[in-house]
Amino acid sequence: MTRSIYLIGCPLKHSISPDFQQAALDYCGLDIRYEPREVEEQLLPLMVEELRAPQTLGANVTVPYKEKVVHLVDRLDDLARAVGAVNTIVNEDGSLTGYNTDVDGFLAALGRAGFEPRGKVVVILGAGGAARAVGFALLVEHAALLMVANRTRARAERLVDDLGRYAREAGIVTQVVAVPWEEDWLKGAVRRCQLVVNCTTLGLRHTPDEGKSPLTDDMLSGDVMVCDLVYNPRETPLLKVARRIGARTIDGLAMLVYQGAAAFKLWTGEKPPLEIMFQAAEKALTEKGGLSL
Questions:
Q1: How far apart are CA 126 and CA 181, in angstroms?
Q2: What CATH class has 3-100+257-287?
Q3: How large is the angle between the packed helices 274-287 and 253-268, nearest 10 degrees?
Q4: Which residues participate in catalysis according to the annotation?
């Protein structure tokens, strides 16, 4: 019997997760289909209930539902509970467990780029599920200062409160603050940091934010590392700005594949074929016009 894994989010037109996950499943000889399910928010609880079916192994969860599904699963693993966001659901005999593989995926992407977070000042743009994972990852790696900026200030402050509470409880001395989403404030924050991470959808293909960058040339300096979690297009408007002024960059593809590989292992118990996944992801971006050279 063919089993299923779903990708849950809205919109999903930009996503290449089905391309590299299906390539990995086929390479491993597994009779499993990875299928996108674009779901409106009011139907999200029904979609999660569908994951309990015997032939369903689970799902990936993407924007804008990583925080919303936290209350729809039966249990959370320790990391997902600490982060407050779920990007992977595993079905075990009708019981759903939520995991967060974004944390490890982000740290693997930083490692691949040779960036060490310890003692660094970081600006996080956004305050959703991806930003929660990034903030948590940087806490456990002992960054010196995290500055969170979000277009809705109250949401940034909630994330700062949650990260600060975790840091205090864990004995981590990282300072966490919110900064306003206004040019002068952002420019000041970015000029102090060694790493900027865009966790918003600004620049994402096939969305109203396509073609937009959260930062402009005069807000960046050449000695900062700029990481954009948006992976389609491969070279986002933000990364174009960063490269124009000589900054080092990390695109979103590595984190996407690494978090997907961790999820693959949770669903299947198999070692993820990373090389196959990266090759399929690169091919999908090229074919869909998302690769800009």
A1: 10
A2: alpha beta
A3: 130
A4: 66
